[in-house]
Amino acid sequence: MAKSDKSVAVRGGSAVERADRVENPGFEPEHKRIHDVNPEKAAGAERGISILFLLSAILSVTAFALNFLFPIVPGDLWSVRLNTLLVGVAIAAGLLTLGVGTVHWAKALMHGHELVEERHETRGDEPTRKRAIEIFQEANKESGWTRRRLLRNSLITALVAFPIPAIALFRDLAPAADPVKALKHTAWKAGTRLARDPSGTPIKASEVTIGSAFHVIPEDLHNYEETFLNEKAKSAVLLMRLPVEELNISEERKDWSYDGIVAYSKICTHVGCPVALYEQQTHHLLCPCHQSQFDVSNECAVIFGPAARPLPQLPITVDAEGYLVAQSDFLEPVGPSFWERTQ
Questions:
Q1: pTM for this one?
Q2: 3-class SS at 263?
Q3: Are residues 57 and 41 in the same domain?
Q4: Do 165 and 222 lie in a common domain?
Q5: Does residue 144 sit within a domain?
Q6: Strand order, beta sheet including 293-295
Q7: With contact defined as beta carbons under 8 Å apart, do 94 and 88 qualify?
Q8: Which domain holds residue 228?
């Protein structure tokens, strides 16, 4: 076989390297930045970055304060919009200034020369650990973390202030009262008429045909002016009518329905999503969030999904004028089952 200085011979399935390998040309001369050669420019960049970090800290604290200066008032949608806008803008601006300052620090003051890391087997021997320490020391020297105290301290201040808005936001998620007690009582009471949502028009039993479904609220829900949204969220009900012979009713609930008309809480017992999809042929209710399914013909027992218990049933009857009315409030808490657990 003819050979040349550019050929490769194959022996035993492995290639023999060429004798005329190209030498590593190395890197081009480093292009110095203005901050590398001008100490005044570097000092100015350091001050500017520190200002950005301190501004980020101020904005984080501002977001925390705005959550209390412009609180969310129950039932006032404008207060919700204003609080969300102001707190959101302050948090976003704090994140933006923190990010811009970090990127500017990396591009203006940290070293800009190119690096290459040769492939090698990672070992845990003493020389490797020693070299790792040297690398950290070099990184510290090149970034100026120890030397540039103004930058370091302002960045630490921004990072410490950054989680402050979360304290206020997570605080608002905590229940103001015992959730079991709050969800055990709704706006339903004996004699309250069932009304269409959102019009508030009372419903007669004769209007509910077999296979139909109504989204229902208490007729007098408008009386809860300050807590209207909370009461509506707890009191939402689905009203359906099935053939009486297809209802499997237990002895203790035999008088909770009227001529095949049943009413169940609209709040899923998994995590509280609205159960609003009714399949009239199978009599199944579907929660769109996590696909829990409930069998209306069998007292809304769970037949699929993560829900832990049936939907609470609202006992109903009719009044002298033929309107559907509640016999009482729900006899168990509505909503997710985990809210019933005690610590």
A1: 0.52
A2: strand
A3: yes
A4: no
A5: yes
A6: 277-279, 284-286, 293-295, 301-304
A7: no
A8: 180-340
Give 253-279 pLDDT, tens digit per residue. Answer: 999 999 999 999 999 999 889 998 898
192 CB burial (10 A radius; 0-12, 13-18, 19+)? buried
Residues 80 and 150 in one domain: yes
CATH at residue 330: 2.102.10.10
Structural domain count of the chain? 2
DSSP string, 327-338: SSS-SS--S-GG
CA distance 103 to 42: 15
Asked if 155 and 281 sit in the same domain, the reply is no
Its sign, for the CA torsion 49, 55, 56, 57, is: positive
- What is the DSSP secondary structure assignment for residue 186, as one 8-state letter? -
DSSP annotation of 175: -
C-beta separation of 188 from 231 below 8 A: no
E strands, the chain, where? 10-11, 14-15, 194-196, 213-218, 237-241, 261-265, 277-279, 284-286, 293-295, 301-304, 316-318, 324-326
Q: 323 and 245 in one domain?
A: yes
Nearest to 166 by CA among 93, 55, 61: 61
Q: Are 265 and 276 in contact (CB under 8 A)?
A: no
The pLDDT tens digits of the residues spanning 53-69 come to 999 999 999 999 999 99
Side-chain-facing half-sphere of 310: CA atoms under 13 Å = 16
Considering the domain architecture, whether residues 153 and 184 belong to the same structural domain is answered as: no
Q: With the C-alpha atoms ordered 41, 42, 47, 53, is the resulting torsion angle positive or negative?
A: positive
The rounded Cα 56 to chain-centroid distance in angstroms is 24
By CB atoms closer than 10 A (0-12, 13-18, 19+), residue 316 is buried
143 and 58 in one domain? yes
Q: How far apart are CA 218 and CA 224, in angstroms?
A: 11
Q: Point out which residues pair with 196 in neighbouring strands.
A: 216
User: Are residues 216 and 328 part of one domain?
Assistant: yes
Mean pLDDT of 153-170: 84
- DSSP letter string, 26-70: -PPPP---HHHH-HHHHHHHHHHHHHHHHHHHHHHHHHHHHHHHS
